[in-house]
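agent> fetching stored inputs for the S-adenosylmethionine docking request
agent> found them:
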Amino acid sequence: MTFKENLLEFLTLEDADKLLDSLKLEDYHAVLLNPKKINKEYFISLFPHVTSHPYVENAFIYDKNEYPLGKSIYHELGYFYLQEPSAMMVSSLLNISKDDLVLDLCAAPGGKSIGASFKLDGTGLIISNDLSRPRCSLIVENAERLGLENLLIVNNDFEKIYQDYLEKFDVIILDAPCSGSGMFRKDDKMIADWSINKVYKFAEIQKSLINIAYQMLKPGGTLSYSTCSYSIEEDEEVIEYLLSNTDAEILPLPYIKKAYINKNKPIGIRMMPSNFSGEGQYICQIKKPGNKKPTAYENSNKYKKELPSSLEDKDVQKYGNTYFYLNNAIKVKGLNIVRYGVKIGEDNKNIFRFDLHYARVGNRKDLPSIELNLDEVKEYLYGNVIRKSNPYKGYIYLIYQNNPIDIAKTDGEQIKNYYPKGLRKRFN
Ligand SMILES: C[S@@+](CC[C@H](N)C(=O)[O-])C[C@H]1O[C@@H](n2cnc3c(N)ncnc32)[C@H](O)[C@@H]1O
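agent> prediction call returned; pasting tokens
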């Protein structure tokens, strides 16, 4: 079967040709604002030619040639996350409530977890998992840069441990590994690599993952299923498999004018570059019948005396000489923890060094702060000492536009540079 024949399983000849033509055009880029750090008005004043995303709050579509946002200093400061315009609709369409316990089963590099974390505003808990350890590090980098507080980043094969998490989660995001045809515009080689056997292979993996995901969902909970594949074998047919084997029900999505709905199997929606300024993305939401019981979070902090008082009500853990905290914790069983919430810092022979992650969250009750101007921020991000007289001695927050940049040490005359060496770079 050719790719086009596979498309004709759900598209008319005219629509399939339209989609294939659209794959030759330039792809689109989007940005999701970090609500803790920047508002829409200020973002537009910095980048006036962006267009509001029609379906995602706090998101904009932009021209990468005009605004190379990935290289912008505001990206470095955690003001936003760059994400494909269709992909960001997955989290934006999710109904998440304060204090929800969320599992993002296939999370790296973290796009859907980040969207969910922005919505939860530090409440609840998101277990952000990926099977690939190197890819988990990408989630960690994003969590540090953006200053996210509610991600427990883990590296597990849940097929082996799901029995310990039955009916545990309010929300599960299954952004499944897939054949990736929805990303063809980004990578020409992928078109040549497409085969129906690959689609069948992923469909098997997806059925297995959706099956365990459903078992881990609380009664009354919501499961979001998405892929960046156009193939019905990986999309509607995976949902049909779940519906025929469980009591799962489809949760209707809000009306989205530019979404494509399969007329023969009206299950979920498809964003396609022939209809919308984004890549291919299939999105479907499932409900488990029943009434949701709230999660009983359990925080313990036996390190209270060793740490700033602002951490008293958090769940603090110590691994080796390094401290971490979560706002809300549950008992974890069998999880390979990559990042336990926020890395506070390391205690090296009684010299405590705060971490960038803790600094970026900016819990500023515990330390004084010094406001830098943009030139000073650039100097700091490049790794230079900042000469600036100030009334403090010891640790201070460095602030720009009311946002924390880092925690560094001052002697009252100059500020030492604690920005991690691997991140240092020059901004013009
Ligand atoms: C489509 S990507 C996820 C993208 C991510 N949700 C985002 O928005 O940034 C699929 C991910 O699934 C991971 N993966 C593959 N098989 C898995 C499994 N059995 N369990 C967990 N993760 C898996 C891959 O390593 C890959 O990172």
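agent> quick read of the result: The first strand starts at residue 29 and ends at 33.
agent> awaiting further instructions
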